[in-house]
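Hi R.,

Here's the chain you asked about this morning:
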Amino acid sequence: MVLILNKILKLKKLESFKNVRYFNYDNWYKVEYERQRRLKKKTEEFFKDKSIFDIAKFVASEGTIEFKKFFDELKSPNDSTCKPVLEHGEFDYLFKFNSKKDIENWMVSTDSSYKIGKTKASLQLTQQNTGLFSGYFSNDYDKPEKSKAIYTGYANISSITQLKSFKREKRININQFNCFMLKIRGDGRTYMLILHTPQRYTMTYTYMHMYPLYTRGGPYWQYVKIPFSKFFHVTHGRVSDKQYRFEGLGVKSIGITCMDGNEGPFSLEIDHIGVLKDNECTEDFAYEVYKIPKYISNT
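And here is the predicted structure, written out as tokens:
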């Protein structure tokens, strides 16, 4: 893992990430426990003042809607069975930022969302019909406990996970492609493109793939192409010892994070995020892979 980090940090533009404070296990479990506690409280409040008749009526109405969605899914083509053969240069949009409805499919979060830090951020539609991710980045924090400081200094936008029938998550499968293509106009900061890729089990909920998103600044748009082979695997905010290639399967959400540690205003204008089939990208994986003993966890 040390060699992988050194290789990545040799890039001049990544120098600012040397001092990034990552999450640790103990505090992550505290946050997860608090999330579960709030969910339990919300569930208890929902059933508190409702009779059995009200609950049965609610289940019947929701069941009708979910079964309708389920039968519609059976009629539509299945992504796993209908895989077109793509030619070199074929492109497809994943997310556009050209309307208010497109903006509503994204969620903004900062350290101040947890009442810990002072970073402010927003995602708005511009007059040119593009998305503007902007705000003020701060490394300061309100809480006196030093352990809380690890949560400060970040602003993030992430796509809202779409749901299929019966509240099942709809994953993004883009394994026919091999590159991401973004049209952005930044402020010179280095952002992070984050792919949330949890697997079947709950313990893999923090599995992600990341790669820096460099911006030039200035008035001109830039097209950024990132091959899948460049993404490195991250667990609990740390670069994992056990690395493997991002295959384009099971993406729960896609996000962009500002966490370069430079206090001050930031601004990133986004037109779209898409995927590209490029036959010239033949690299399998950009980083060295080590054989990890079986008794070592994937951290």
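One quick note: The chain is about 20% helix and 25% strand.

Cheers,
M.
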